[in-house]
Predict the structure.
Amino acid sequence: MYIVGITGGTGAGKTSAVKALQGFGAHALDCDVIYHEILLSNKDMKDEIGASFSNVAVNGEINRRRLSEIVWNDPDSLTTLNAITHKYMDCEIDRRLESLEKSGVKITAIDAIALIESGQSKKCDVVIGVVAPQEKRLARIIQRDKLSDEQALKRIMAQQPESFFRENCEYILENLYSTEAEFESKCVEFFKRLLEK
């Protein structure tokens, strides 16, 4: 199974890149979605988060809004949360990759903002970074997540700068397009060339 890692900051356009790859028959593992799934189902992870952050665990469930307020306003708290969640995510991604390979899937994309920092990139045959100008990312995040300008900027500033992705990815997809459809079309062209190799 050929594993493609797709990473980049929030609002850069990873979803469009993943959609383009899915057009070639790829299965996608969205680490954000998987994180929210195991945040509901994994008692050990919930207990560890509850023990590390005061007032976020209520009757054994994590108050996601409260947790978000804490980690997006304090880099040390975000580091602590990532240290907890990455180990649980690692096991879950391994389990899903094994299942996909057994079922005969030929191409899988791992879509993750922290693909490199979490170590998930080591599972990938190729790592692709998606980057976009900050003002475009801000506009997308504000519209998509219904955040204020200040909240959106905090999320961007809490993540790796563009230079990190340029230094750590084999390929960069630069999203300078005015519409998602235009960018997705360019991604289709890119993946066609990549998969032909």
The domain at 2-192 is CATH 3.40.50.300 (Rossmann fold). The first helix runs from residue 14 to 22. The chain has a mean pLDDT of 95. The chain has one domain: 2-192.
